[in-house]
# Entry
Amino acid sequence: MPKQITEIESMRLYISGVMERADHHANGVSDVILTLAGALIWKKDTDPISVFEINGQLKNVLWISINGKKYAFSYNHDVGSIEMRENTTQGQVLRSFMNDDTPHTIREYFNSL
# Structure
């Protein structure tokens, strides 16, 4: 079930959890998470950010609206990347992010949305 994040402290706790899990299981995205977090906060609409929650635990799925479109971000264990999809975690992958993505390429991509 999605949980809305409307305060910076909630976002900090969410990112801290994602970073901790990435350090243990997803080294290929452990650095890009910080750049993505900044890009999401920079480009998000006024709608709250939503994250997936199960039994009070925040998971690695996040939804955000940018320019009126809803996007889902989730970690793909098989590929080892963070995937961006429109509306749902099951749709077509619009973009994958890994540590080799530079802040510049991420900025350009989010500027194009």
About this structure: The mean pLDDT is 87.
